[in-house]
Amino acid sequence: MIDLDNTLIDRDAGFRTGLLALLDDRGLPAEHADWIMEIDQRGYTPRPVVAKAMLDRLDLGLTEDDLITALIACSRDNARLAPETAAAIERARAAGHRVVIVTNGPVPSQTGKIRNAGLDRLVDASIVSGAIGTDKPEPAVFHAAAAAVGGSLADAWMIGDRDDADILGAHRLGVPSVWLHLGRTWTAPDYRPTHTADTVVEAIDHAANA
């Protein structure tokens, strides 16, 4: 099981690419991207909140609804998969492992990212929380991932960048995990990942060979 945003794909890089194009289209300086990225908080700030902050400071010539739609498109339409990540997925599957994406978020945006990154052609299944009505770290998300490939959590691993979603969810179910640290230090006192990785390629290879 592998998380999508900022794990399989660099969601922040994709969002920034789209954001810069949006600012350029509206005739605004690229320097605004920095504070917008801060408000965005890796995609965890609700889109209406980001849109309101932008409209309060910038003359975008857009309605709030149109800006929300544009912000969703920024990350969805610029989702890209690194070749080395694709190769790691292929190695894991060639070794007999089933690879399932497990991602929080609305179905249209998340499935759009998966498709635009070409992941729909590489993985065995994808579970989007919006389709099942609950988010990671709730057990139902992980059980749905196992069921999607006719498997069991008994021999599963979870890979992700979020301590409070990916790693906590795995911990509660007794599933070993790999945390993609992205330059951060682990701070949760009550649980820890089984392994910490510098890159998603390292994470996939570790889980596949454990």
UniProtKB/TrEMBL annotation:
It comes from the Bacteria. Its cofactor is Mg(2+). One of its GO terms (biological process) is small molecule metabolic process. GO terms for molecular function: hydrolase activity. Keywords: Hydrolase, Magnesium. This is HAD family hydrolase. It comes from Glycomyces terrestris.
